[in-house]
Design the sequence.
């Protein structure tokens, strides 16, 4: 099998051919609650992941597995509806393949969205939260193994994984549309089990406000490649032990669906600003 770089090139050429567009500026990964967002855009060109060589096919509910090429103001946005997770058994290089492909295809801005549990005092179910930083407790890194300097440096700096100027734009867009946008540190465990209350007490002690099962590998790979990253999380539930009841996957999906209109309104205002 050829190396990662060659496989990424192959996938990026396939996207250009299948969308008929050789340039994209922004890639947006659509997490829970945003899967239907591309339907809003007339002229969106849809490409199933099955037609893009190397793209892994998502198995999680609400993660379709379709890439959409969308025109949004002056920006051409590649919307990825469907991601794969570590809990599905994928290694980190597979989890990050789609985002790396988009960055190689020219997307210098990476927008990541997800659903999370809230453990910060000020974070409640339904809140949208700009991720300011992350803690990787999954014991996995997409940068482990041989490094290809064409993608990025061996030891990339992770001081500002989430670009401050993009976070400012997110706040400006949120004020414009009257959406309350919070800030917090996101802690990644690979799941698929929700955390224990003791783990959540540890997350709080470490300074996390959100816990979740995605985003950190994609953000890390995107920064490795020098792209700017913005990540916005939807808190779907108070994290384990904080709400006095058990967490279910159904409440996570329901809560994501309920917040969908607000999440979309935020991005309607934000995407043209990026
Ligand atoms: N923990 C981890 N991931 C999540 C949660 C949670 O409580 N809610 C939504 N995704």
Sequence:
């Amino acid at each position: 099998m050829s190396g990662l770089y060659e496989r990424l090139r192959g996938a990026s050429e396939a996207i250009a051919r299948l969308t008929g567009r050789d340039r994209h500026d922004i890639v947006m990964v659509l997490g829970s609650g945003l899967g239907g967002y591309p339907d809003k855009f007339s002229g969106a060109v849809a490409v199933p992941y099955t037609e893009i060589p190397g793209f892994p096919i998502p198995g999680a509910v609400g993660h379709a597995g379709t890439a959409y090429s969308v025109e949004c103001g002056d920006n051409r946005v590649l919307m990825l509806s469907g991601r794969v997770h570590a809990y599905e058994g994928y290694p980190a290089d597979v989890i990050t393949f789609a985002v790396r492909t988009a960055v190689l295809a020219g997307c210098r801005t990476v927008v990541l969205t997800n659903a999370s549990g809230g453990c910060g005092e000020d974070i409640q179910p339904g809140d949208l939260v700009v991720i300011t930083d992350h803690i990787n407790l999954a014991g996995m890194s997409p940068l482990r193994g041989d490094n290809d300097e064409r993608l990025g440096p061996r030891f990339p700096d992770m001081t500002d994984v989430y670009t401050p100027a993009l976070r400012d734009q997110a706040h400006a867009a949120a004020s414009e549309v009257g959406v309350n946008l919070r800030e917090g540190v996101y802690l990644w465990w690979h799941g698929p089990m929700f955390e224990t209350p003791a783990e959540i007490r540890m997350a709080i002690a470490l300074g996390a406000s959100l816990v979740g099962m995605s985003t950190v590998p994609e953000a890390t790979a995107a920064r490795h490649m020098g792209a700017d990253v913005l990540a916005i999380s939807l808190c779907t539930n108070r994290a384990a032990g904080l709400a006095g009841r058990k967490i279910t996957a159904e409440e996570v999906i329901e809560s994501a669906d309920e917040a969908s209109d607000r999440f979309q309104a935020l991005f309607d205002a934000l995407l043209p600003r990026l």
User: Anything to note?
Assistant: Residues 130 and 168 are 10 Å apart (CA to CA). The first strand starts at residue 26 and ends at 30.
